[in-house]
Amino acid sequence: MLQLSIFSKILNPDRLDNITEYSTAESLALINILTKISNSPILLKAVVDKAKAKISQGEDNRERTTIVEEAVKLLPERAQVEDLSLSGDHLS
User: Fold this and answer.
1) What is the pTM of this model?
2) Are the C-beta atoms of residues 48 and 72 closer than 8 Å to each other?
3) Using an 8 Å Cβ cutoff, are 51 and 71 in contact?
4) Which of 11, 30, 48, 86 sits at 20 to 30 Å (Cα–Cα) from 66?
């Protein structure tokens, strides 16, 4: 299942501490990412795009963005937001 693979990638214990050690805001951002994965993994593409913009302005955590970028690589190559087969509702 795609969502489980993405959760495993993001919740890797070796890297999770690096994300959450900075602040409560980072932990809340992680919860937001996990919610997006639950709803539809395709939503991570928007997270990556937004994070890249913030990184270029020096406002975002590069470690978290890298993990999310790796997770996005697990999505089907031509995945679109409109593809309901990736959503949690479709899988239940």
Assistant:
1) 0.69
2) yes
3) no
4) 86
Residues 6+ apart with CB under 8 A from 69: 48
Burial of 82 (0-12, 13-18, 19+ CB in 10 A): exposed
Residue in this structure with the two tokens 């890249």, named with its chain if needed:
52
Residue 33, amino acid: I
Per-residue pLDDT of the chain (92 residues; tens, 9 = 90+): 788 888 888 888 777 776 666 667 777 888 888 898 888 888 888 888 787 777 777 766 566 667 888 888 888 877 776 666 666 555 44
The structure tokens 């990412």 sit at: 33
